[in-house]
Design a protein that fits this description.
The structure holds 2 protein chains of 2 kinds. Chain A is of the alpha+beta class. Chain A contains 6 helices and 3 strands. In chain A, a hairpin with a 5-residue loop joins strand 2 and strand 3. In chain B, strands 1, 2, 3, 4, 5, 6, 7, 8, 9, 10 and 11 form an 11-stranded mixed β-sheet that branches. In chain B, strands 14-15-20-17-19-18 form a 6-stranded mixed barrel. Chain B has a 4-stranded antiparallel β-sheet with strand order 13-21-12-22. The chains are: A alpha+beta, B alpha+beta. Chains A and B meet through helix 3, helix 4 and strand 3 of A and helix 2 and helix 4 of B.
């Protein structure tokens, strides 16, 4: 659907934003991206998991093994204080970037979304 | 449903990540794959379909592994650590020996990782081991080269020296007539041969030089089983007076003088004016009877005219196969005692003794080397105790890890093996460093011991020394690894896990640590006492007043060939002119000569005193006999006590006069007036020398021997052909050597000045071996003291870190800093005081064995012991003070908040 190149730049930001509201486990994150994008965005496990590791190693998210009632033990990732700061920064940058690209390409946001 | 964890583990390999990381990743991927599987099943797919669906989620495992490694780069192990993987298969399922080996290698790898994790500990432990193993390897290389390596002759065990036993002097050189009889009568030797030192003047391109060689029985080379590299050895018929005009030259001489020209065989050269023919060249490295000889010639004993009273030959022999040393000894004793009965005039009560050639050469140095070997063994023990202590401290820090591993099912044997593997990795690395240290030390050993230790040129790092280093490394690894391994195996799992890392076993650990420390201190005390005793002995020896002033005196030898100086008056004239020339050298304050140099040589003659009853043959008194020029006493600063010394007017034909020393006067004229008395020196044919003076004692036999009675006579009344020339100066005596050679050339162009040295050097060389032992033992004692201090510091420091909380509480309830300081210092100093006490007791009992190495110091010298104790206490105080200061500065609030 979208090329890998295109997706690459936004994967980290997507993961961070999905963890903003509450901790989630890896499988859940993958499923959420798929459902929220209406099936247009999918990240296979081999892409998703190394990214989670990288984010954790940077200290932006923190994984913790939790056993919830009636479920198997899973690693839940939550956003750290650093991660929250990075996410806010990335949101801002993304918005500015998209606006700039739109302006350059002459896309009216209102028309585009309607089409 | 399949086991997803094993599914992932079988496909994903992340060997570069630190321990635990791979497991975590495998676990999470497995959980997620299982989620996919469950999702598919929930969506109504069959088990097989769901399984296939989950498996499809990861297509390229290798790429995933690469991506994971990149993403997890912060958890990649250090390169050094990873390098060890290459030698270790990952999964040891092989049976038997292979599996054991794999386990061992795995343990070693684990050990390596543990060491890399604590670089401070590792550095201290490695330094300790490198010092210990390095010191022992260096000393062992000396022991190996000097004592253990076989002599450089084929089947060297059959080689022996044969000596005569003379009633008055004990072991003695052999009389030629006796050697000739031994040759004929013995049945135990394949060969028995005599040798004697030899010298000859050779006039080469750069003027006359003195060659040193040996005259030997014709079959000497056959006896030693070494053939010339070029040409032949001697023939039986050449070993006869008048026929012995052939020589075999050494490889060094061949190289130096003939540029290795193979056509040297058959060439005629002139030695001391006598033409000889070169018939052979010995191989490089051939040594007999001493090193650096230039030539050998047949000794040519004359059976018809051999003396039985003059003893001057060395004798070696090769025992027949199957003959033991005891058999040879018994037969030679029988033969010699039979000859003694047969020739009572010259050989009364004489006997013979046989010793192995090897023992003969290295026997003298053996005790000193073995003492040093003992000393390094002590250093090694201290190093072991030190590292064991460090490991114990670390083991107690790691108690939790060990407890967890035990809880996870690691058996005790497995744990012990692991701890041992760790200490072996450590000791082998330390051993490698130690070998490097020893390698660096060998040139120093060579230069320090040159001339004072036989065969020291053989000292090198050979296979045997490396094997020794390896063995000692493994041994120390096991030795110092045992304590922590034992402690690890005793860890009480529940207690440790519950207490959050501080266990009941810590009490037992402290006991072991303290015991090791006390042992360390005690051992280093023993070494320190030994070193101080040797040091004080050395100072005493070098402070001995030799009775003359060796500073600023040049010495060299001149030997007149009999061929050109047949008559006494020729010799007298020569030496008169030479002394005159030397006297004129600018800067020379006096020139003199003597036939036998102080410190180095003994030359003893019997005598009788005029007017006293004739002593029985064999019972004549004897004394040092010195032939000197008039200025001898002035040049060497020997005090005149009574009467006069010699003057230029004491001539060949004037009345014979002698000067004696104090020791002679005290021994032979107690309470009497020696001046004016007559001495008959030698065999009574010369008449009596009148004693005209008494001078101070001189240590002719070396600094360590009390001066023995000495009588001097003027050179002109007892002419020798070989003399030591002495030139004193106010400046640097070595600067006089060129003018001295020139002065000799001006008197005779064909004579070399040889053995050029200074008297200070002669005195210095006489204490070289003592200095060697003293310096080495002092070095080892310093290393031992250093190691003990490090050990003390480590143990006290660890205690402080363990008691930080307690110290905080104490200070919170009112303890002063001084109290804390006193508490910590007291704890450490108590240990070192106990070690000191034990060490002193041990030193007292061991010092008795060192008596032979001491000089002027009693083995129980209180000053030495007091000095040692104070050095140790000072160092201990310092080692305890550093951690105590840290304890003193503990902030009670911070300390109590810990936990």
């Amino acid at each position: 659907m979208f090329s890998a190149e295109l997706k690459k730049g936004s994967t980290e930001m997507l993961l961070l934003s999905l963890l903003e509201s509450r901790p989630r486990h890896g499988y859940e994150i993958g499923k959420l991206i798929e459902s929220r994008s209406g099936g247009r965005l999918t990240f296979a496990l081999p892409t998703l998991y190394p990214t989670l590791l990288r984010l954790e190693n940077r200290g932006w998210i923190k994984g913790r093994w939790v056993e919830k009632a009636g479920e198997r033990e899973r690693c839940f990732y939550r956003l750290t204080r650093d991660g929250r700061r990075v996410l806010a920064q990335q949101r801002r940058t993304w918005r500015e970037y998209v606006d700039a690209v739109n302006d350059v390409m002459g896309i009216d946001v209102t028309t585009a979304s309607r089409a | 449903m399949r086991d997803w964890q094993s599914f992932v583990r079988a496909r994903l390999s992340l060997p570069d990540l630190v321990a635990g990381r791979e497991a975590r990743i495998v676990r999470e991927l497995a959980v997620q794959l299982e989620d996919f599987y469950r999702e598919a099943r929930a969506g109504g797919q069959s088990e097989a379909e769901a399984d296939a669906f989950a498996r499809r989620q990861i297509g390229d495992w290798e790429r995933l592994a690469r991506d994971l490694r990149t993403a997890d780069a912060v958890h990649v192990r250090p390169a050094l650590d990873r390098a060890s993987d290459r030698y270790i298969p990952r999964h040891g399922t092989e049976p038997g020996v292979i599996s054991m080996l794999v386990h061992m290698l795995n343990d070693a790898r684990y050990g390596l990782r543990q060491l890399a994790r604590t670089p401070g500990f590792t550095a201290v432990a490695l330094l300790t081991l490198a010092l210990g193993i390095g010191a022992s390897t260096a000393i062992f290389s000396v022991v190996n080269g000097v004592l253990l390596r076989p002599l450089p002759y084929p089947e060297p065990d059959a080689l022996v020296r044969v000596h005569e036993i003379v009633p008055q002097y004990g072991q003695f050189s052999v009389a030629p007539a006796n050697l000739l009889d031994w040759r004929q009568q013995n049945t135990v030797f394949e060969h028995i041969a005599g040798f004697n030192g030899d010298r000859a003047t050779y006039i080469g391109d750069s003027g006359p030089v003195m060659l040193t060689g040996a005259s030997v029985s014709w079959d000497m080379f056959d006896l030693l089983r070494v053939s010339p590299a070029l040409g032949r050895s001697f023939r039986a018929e050449e070993d006869a007076p008048g026929k012995n005009t052939v020589i075999v030259i050494s490889h060094g001489f061949w190289q130096r003088v003939f540029g290795q020209d193979p056509s040297v065989l058959g060439r005629a050269i002139t030695l001391s004016g006598v033409p000889v023919t070169i018939v052979g060249v010995m191989p490089a490295g051939f040594v007999f009877p001493s090193s650096n000889l230039d030539y050998w010639r047949p000794i040519a004993l004359d059976p018809a005219n051999a003396t039985r009273g003059g003893h001057f030959l060395g004798v070696v022999a090769r025992m027949k196969p199957g003959i033991t040393l005891d058999q040879a000894r018994a037969e030679m004793k029988t033969i010699a005692e039979r000859l003694a009965v047969q020739y009572p005039k010259n050989s009364a009560n004489e006997s013979a003794e046989v010793r192995s050639l090897h023992a003969e050469i290295v026997g003298g140095i053996r005790p000193a080397l073995l003492t040093l070997l003992g000393a390094v063994a002590v250093v090694i023990l201290i190093a072991c105790a030190n590292v064991a202590n460090l490991l114990l401290v670390r083991a107690s820090v790691r108690e939790r890890e060990i407890a967890v591993r035990t809880a996870l099912g690691a058996g005790r044997g497995r744990l012990v093996r692991q701890m041992l593997a760790e200490s072996l990795v450590l000791s082998l690395a330390g051993g490698a460093l130690g070998v490097a240290l020893a390698y660096a030390a060998i040139p120093a050993i060579h230069s320090l011991s040159a001339g004072s230790i036989p065969r020291v040129a053989n000292v090198a790092l050979d296979v045997r020394v490396l094997g020794f280093a390896l063995g000692i490394s493994v041994l120390t690894g096991i030795l110092f690894g045992l304590a922590p391994a034992w402690q690890a195996s005793r860890t009480v799992v529940g207690a440790v896990l519950k207490e959050g890392g501080r266990s009941a076993a810590a009490g037992g650990g402290r006991w072991v640590r303290n015991t090791l420390l006390v042992g360390e201190v005690a051992l280093s005390i023993v070494l320190l006492v030994g070193a101080v005793l040797l040091l004080r002995s050395f100072v005493k020896v070098t402070n001995v007043d030799p009775g003359f002033r060796p500073e600023r005196v040049l010495a060299f030898r001149v030997a007149l060939p009999n061929a050109s100086f047949r008559e006494d008056h020729q010799r007298v004239a020569f030496f008169d002119r030479l002394l005159d020339g030397l006297q004129r050298i600018p800067g020379a304050s006096a020139a003199a000569m003597i036939q036998s140099l102080p410190i180095r040589n003994d030359y003893v003659l019997s005598f009788s005193i005029q007017g006293r009853p004739e002593p029985k043959p064999g019972d004549e008194p004897s004394a040092n006999h010195r032939v000197v020029s008039p200025d001898y006493f002035k040049a060497l600063g020997i005090r005149l006590l009574r009467g006069r010394t010699f003057t230029p007017r004491d001539l060949e034909k004037s009345p014979m006069v002698a000067v004696i020393d104090e020791a002679f006067a005290a021994r032979h004229f107690p309470g009497e007036e020696p001046l004016g008395r007559g001495l008959d020196i030698g065999n009574g044919s010369d008449g009596f020398y009148e004693i005209v003076g008494v001078v101070g004692n001189v240590n002719y036999g070396g600094l360590e021997r009390a001066p023995s009675p000495t009588m001097y006579v003027p050179f002109k009344q007892d002419v020798f052909s070989s003399m030591w020339m002495l030139v004193s100066t106010d400046g640097d005596p070595s600067k006089l050597s060129a003018p001295a050679r020139q002065a000799l050339l001006e008197v005779d162009r064909s004579l070399p000045a040889f053995s050029m040295t200074t008297l200070a050097t002669v005195v210095d060389e006489s204490v070289a071996q003592r200095r060697f032992s003293m310096l080495l033992l002092t070095t080892f004692a310093a290393v031992a003291l250093f190691l003990a201090a490090v050990g003390l510091y480590g143990v006290v420091g660890y205690t402080v870190s363990q008691r930080t909380q307690e110290i905080g509480v104490r200070m919170a309830i009112g303890a002063q800093r001084a109290d804390v300081l006193r508490m910590v210092l007291g704890g450490g100093m108590k240990l070192s005081a106990i070690g000191l006490a034990i060490g002193l007791v041990a030193a007292v009992s061991l010092a008795r064995m060192a008596t032979t190495m001491l000089f002027g110091v009693q083995p129980f010298d209180p000053a030495s012991y007091a000095a040692t104790a104070s050095v140790l206490l000072t160092v201990s105080l310092l080692a305890c003070y550093l951690p105590a200061r840290r304890a003193m500065l503990v902030d009670p609030v911070v300390a109590m908040r810990q936990e």
